[in-house]
Amino acid sequence: MTFFAHRFVNRCLLATILAATAIPVVALADADTAWQASRQMVLVITPDWNADHGTLRAFERDGDGWKATVEAQDVTVGRSGSAWGIGLNPAQADGPQKHEGDGRAAAGVYRVGPIFGYASSADTHMPYEAMQYTDWCVDVDGSPYYNQIVDTKKVGEKAVEGASEPMRRDLHLAGDQRYKIGFVIEHNAEGKRGGGSCIFAHLWKSPTDATAGCTAMPESVMRRLVAWMKPEEHPVFVLLPQSEYERLRTSWHLPALGKQP
């Protein structure tokens, strides 16, 4: 569900540590310009707008185009399906539009932000932040910290009143392991009010449990992805229903789904 700020957002964008304020990400108008520098892509395709599951693949791009590096894997997405979010791609008028609390995953193209988890470190080249009991992602529409991960030791307990996203779910929610390891999907990075918040890729509870708007997968798949991604390759996360993938694949320069490894 996501964009972090306070301690997290600048690491997300500038690879610095413990930023004091959120830095907005400006969505570029031209699709090719927006992610032409990206050489790694995590791609999720769902059967349709209302499907709560999909298939994840990962690709690397070189001079010859996109090549598959991670075979097709089952994932779960929002319990209500997916909807167009706010990311790198041009806004799309046809199809549902993402808003706070709709239970839909964010469709579109997004930067991959920091890796987060319960452990003090992780096998990843990406910026990593160990979550603490006091870290929350604020999903309260209208909060000055909306769609940011904040530390209550820095902003105070009052700043997260009403928030439903503790980042240490294991400590707050009876041992829940879903945020044991995951990464930020930089949806609604400017924190547009009501646009949807806290969109992550994280571990699934089970193959049949959908999410509140995130993309969930087995731990083995997640660890393979976070070990593979590199900041210098500018990884992006793409989620689209099958019909939209077919419509946009050529103009958005997305991978062709040919032979998988």
Explain this structure.
Strands 1, 2, 3, 4, 5, 6, 10, 11, 12 and 13 form a 10-stranded mixed β-sheet that branches. The chain is built from 6 helices and 13 strands. With 261 residues, the chain is of the alpha/beta class. The chain has one domain.
- Supply Rg: 17 Å
Which term fits the overall shape? Answer: globular
Q: How many angstroms does the end-to-end distance come to?
A: 30 Å
Structural class: alpha/beta
Total number of domains: 1
Unreliable stretches: 6-31
Largest sheet at a glance?
Answer: 10 strands, mixed
Note the run of SSEs as H and E.
HHEEEEEEEEHEHEEEHEH
Assign a percent range to the helix content: 10-25%
Mean pLDDT across the residues is: 89
The number of E-state strands comes to 13
Strand content: 25-35%
Total of DSSP H or I helical runs spanning 4+ residues = 6
What does this entry show, briefly?
This protein has helices at residues 9-14, 31-35, 152-155, 169-172, 219-228, 242-248, and strands at residues 40-46, 53-62, 65-76, 82-84, 105-117, 128-130, 135-137, 149-151, 165-166, 181-185, 200-203, 215-217, 236-241. With 261 residues, the chain is of the alpha/beta class. The two termini are 30 Å apart.
Features:
13 strands; ten-stranded mixed β-sheet; three-stranded antiparallel β-sheet; 261 residues; 6 helices; alpha/beta; 14% helix
What's the structural blueprint in terms of helices and strands?
Blueprint: H1 9-14, H2 31-35, E1 40-46, E2 53-62, E3 65-76, E4 82-84, E5 105-117, E6 128-130, E7 135-137, E8 149-151, H3 152-155, E9 165-166, H4 169-172, E10 181-185, E11 200-203, E12 215-217, H5 219-228, E13 236-241, H6 242-248
Parallel strand pairs: 1-13, 4-5, 5-6, 11-12
Antiparallel strand pairs: 1-2, 2-3, 5-10, 5-13, 7-8, 7-9, 10-11
